[in-house]
Amino acid sequence: MSVLQTLTANLLAITMTLHILSAVIWVGGMFFAHIALRPVAANLLDPPLRLPLMSQVLARFFPWVWAAIILLWATGLWLIFGVYGGMAKTAIYIHIMLTLAALMTVLFAYIFFMPFLRMKQALIHDDFKQAGQNLARIRQIIGTNLWLGLITIIVATAGRYL
Hints:
mainly alpha; single chain; 4 helices; 162 residues
């Protein structure tokens, strides 16, 4: 194997690893927050404790989501155009992944810039009713994004075999 082939193989391995790790961080974080953290917090904590907890948890998680999104798009587009030769040369499952990624990205941006910011503002003013309404909206959209993320993982792993 030539030096160029070795470098290309190493770059491909690094790119795929970053792509997969980014998906795991984003989808795994949504799974944990939606399936485990939020229901337990809702069961054990009253709104004056639960809502600031969830706000701070999301404030710590969302920068990781932004990083994951940036890495997913950068690595995914590099793979499509740098390795596979463009969208015309990719299999249908890649098109499906890209479409789902676009939808998930838009939904996350909406969460971040609308109900999340509104929830934080409501908490500044101790408006727990408004904060709770915004958290409920966040939860609904994260639930949708979680399903889209799980479907994307299924498409990514099984797509080439279907």
